[in-house]
Design a protein that fits this description.
Elements: H1 8-33, H2 36-42, E1 46-47, E2 61-64, H3 71-80, E3 86-88, E4 91-94, H4 102-115
Antiparallel strand pairs: 1-2, 2-4, 3-4
Helix pairs in contact: 3-4
Length: about 120
């Protein structure tokens, strides 16, 4: 009888998917949000890392709200428009993906512009 071995072919296929998808995700989300960052910074938000792309992971971003913003009001306004972010104290965790569109980003910026005036 042959020994039972783990199915390494499934692991190999998964690693190939990750290796080919990750660069596409990063490139897509970087382009998707490129115009949003300056707009959000003009509203007094701070994009993590500090105002630039060095070290920024474009598919997972921390957006620090300005001091005058009420995080609860911001979170409720986003939820009312079906915009899903994770609110953590004064920081919004924005995690765009391949299914997001420029319209989604415009909606995010639009709600924040309305709430953060």
């Amino acid at each position: 009888m042959l020994p039972v071995r783990p199915d390494t072919s499934a692991q190999f296929r998964f690693s190939k998917v990750i290796a080919t998808t990750a660069p596409l995700l990063i490139a897509y989300t970087q382009g998707l949000l490129a115009d949003a960052w300056p707009a959000l910074e003009s509203l007094g938000c701070r994009v993590e890392p500090a105002n630039g792309s060095i070290g920024r992971c474009h598919h997972l971003v921390g957006l620090w709200l300005p001091d005058h913003a009420d995080p609860m009001i911001v979170s409720q306004a986003l939820q009312a428009e079906n915009i899903s972010v994770s609110a953590r104290a004064r920081v919004l965790r924005i995690a765009p993906h391949l299914y997001n569109t420029p319209d989604d980003v415009d909606a995010l910026v639009g709600v924040l512009a309305g709430v953060l005036k």
